[in-house]
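Lab notes, practical 5.
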Amino acid sequence: MKTEIFSFNEIDMDGNHTQVLILVTGQNFDYNSTLDHIEMLKRKSKDSDPEHLVDETYKWLESKGNRCEYLAFTEIKF
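Output from the prediction step:
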């Protein structure tokens, strides 16, 4: 079993930054297949918002037998 944190980042037209972290635990995932899946989702639904892409990727990772969990975090800038 391995555990990884997937970080999804969006920067909108105004320069605002949104980040979503997902903790993924399992044996059946890797970055390349996840990136391929996200690219396929983006091509399939060009008007999808980033939240939709993150939610669909979360479901896809779980469908592959992984355990996923959204992580709450606070960013502190100095």
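Observations recorded by the TA: Residues 4 and 30 are 9 Å apart (CA to CA). The radius of gyration is 13 Å.
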